[in-house]
Design brief:
The structure is a homotrimer of 277-residue chains. Chain A has 277 residues and is α/β, with parallel strands linked by helices. Chain A contains 13 helices and 10 strands.
Chain lengths: 277, 277, 277
Amino acid sequence: MAYGFETFKTRIEDGVLFAAISSPPLNLIGPEFVSDLLALMDRLDADDEIQVVVFSSTDPEFFIPHVDVARIAEYGKATAKLTGSLSGSLGGVFRRLSEIRQITIAQVEGFARGAGSEFALACDMRFAARETAVFGQIEAGFGAVPGAGAVQHLTRLLGRGRAMEVILSSGDFDADLAERYGWINRAMPQAELEGFVTALAVRIAKFPVSGLTANKRRINDISLPAFADVRTDAALFPQTISSPRGQARTKELFDAGMQTRGDVERDFAGAIGRLKS
Amino acid sequence: MAYGFETFKTRIEDGVLFAAISSPPLNLIGPEFVSDLLALMDRLDADDEIQVVVFSSTDPEFFIPHVDVARIAEYGKATAKLTGSLSGSLGGVFRRLSEIRQITIAQVEGFARGAGSEFALACDMRFAARETAVFGQIEAGFGAVPGAGAVQHLTRLLGRGRAMEVILSSGDFDADLAERYGWINRAMPQAELEGFVTALAVRIAKFPVSGLTANKRRINDISLPAFADVRTDAALFPQTISSPRGQARTKELFDAGMQTRGDVERDFAGAIGRLKS
Amino acid sequence: MAYGFETFKTRIEDGVLFAAISSPPLNLIGPEFVSDLLALMDRLDADDEIQVVVFSSTDPEFFIPHVDVARIAEYGKATAKLTGSLSGSLGGVFRRLSEIRQITIAQVEGFARGAGSEFALACDMRFAARETAVFGQIEAGFGAVPGAGAVQHLTRLLGRGRAMEVILSSGDFDADLAERYGWINRAMPQAELEGFVTALAVRIAKFPVSGLTANKRRINDISLPAFADVRTDAALFPQTISSPRGQARTKELFDAGMQTRGDVERDFAGAIGRLKS
């Protein structure tokens, strides 16, 4: 089928593309994910039948935990396939996602931290499972600035005080607190999440397309940052993550088990808090 | 009395004008409402005694369900009486409302959808009855962009994700959810609503007028959109609502009973979801 | 010790400066507080060891009730010690606080009204005790515009409708409502507050400094107002507070016991509502 990708399992129904992220063992963002997402958006541009895209995960425990820290240069190279003035950064790829014609919904179960949170923030809406979803913007724990949209989106959605807390603490925020802070649209019981999101997606997909596009554009006109800000944040991430202490803390977390299916990834906030470097 | 209008029942007490919308059978926004609102604002401009205006509805089930869809051209003509560079659009009329000297409070019971929600959003504050108030921005269901302020206000109040959900879904949102999303100041029990709003209005009306005006202006300076955006949205509404599918869906809803006191108006979100056109 | 001040009791631990406001009998903002705050910021600029500052109060009932209304000219003179283009206003002093390199957290118990609320708003985050914290922006009750940041921060954090309510009503808002409105990050039980804030501060203080600074700057770039707006509000406060009715209402409140440890300060919202002038 037309929408088969290495890192997404897809299904089309009622004008909705259901794209489940499936990149074992952990759904880390690597070059394959970036390439697939770019190819997916190119196809969506040329597709008249799909009006709404629902992003979920085939792994109930991990939505997207963060980028593959061992492959930053590699996925960075993949972002160069993005055309236009934001080429060459994950922030640019996610900004393109925020501007595609189709309406996008993130259906979040499990951990969505770092660029996983930023991917969800780039979507038009976010709904999350109360029991399992955990959000975190972990970059400050490595001495880094989130490079792919978190600073821009969280400051606008949460306001200055809560954006400061979320970003500077590198802490974990469950779905209920994420809802109270405005990070996501709503938290709901896991048993209801898929049904709710599917019904919403199918409903929207039946509406006249021109109106959806026009409304999305007008909302984006108000709420998305200037390209210069996207580029500034994108440049800050590699610059700040490569500081000596940032590198030492990354190594320490790798040694403790980061990027394996274990305690560090499950309690990332705790692991960051225990770092000695 | 000086404040008698066809579509508002008014009473002045303690420096507060209580203006109850009364335009049977449904409180639809038509040319009479627009003319009355413009005349009311002209009088308020020249009135030193009134410091606060409370808008409510004499119909406990319908605040303002939406514009009178059969009379768009007519009420459009009435908006031409607005002077200044926003003349000729409902968005311009509501923007003028946001900038009058007096402080305005919407006391909402019943359905406030479409331009009814936009009227409430144009007021300085909004309080709603938990049991009966229902908010909806229904234009996308007709392929249209809200033309009278919803895109601007909702994106700023709710943030990008929730504004997308509200506007793109054309769904119903009860008072509690509207409070959680920031659409309204607060939801409260119907039995307490009028007392709360009256006390708040009377309290504010006793404060020095110059301070109220200066504070309102400074808050507006930050939170109201540029005139160019008001005009852009105003132009988008007639353009998008007149698409062939928009017209077909409007006709289908009329045939099902829209604009009568029945199931369609009570379950507008459901009715939109069942459209076949 | 290096951080001894007349109006702050300080303690340094784990890279955190704990600065408890201690200016009996009421923690009013007077010239000593302004001078101390400016001196504190100068020292923090030159200090590499302190990464986070926690502001609390030694008085569990009064965080900062408001400025010392009898000494506006005096503390105004103290603000002239601020260098730069915002010199000469409390709004400029608080803006400087929002931009210091260190991360600042307000730990609020008791009354935080007027410039006390604005001081908390100038901090990077705000956490408050559910049982005792009360927030109020009381200036409109005197016919005045808040001059030290409230209009800017509250409009951005709470949105137009709730900022209008808070500022125009001059009402009291308890910690839970302040959380729902976005005025503070979170309300929590008083018994947990100090432990929570201390743990958060110590956690952040261990992170690489360069990343904290870079993140804070990027969030500030989006969320702080232009200097021209800081100056405009700063000029409006003395101009509006000195109106004849503003002066009469101030005198009436003084006669009733304002600025003593009594009923007026405990029920300021009620006292404003009962004014006859």
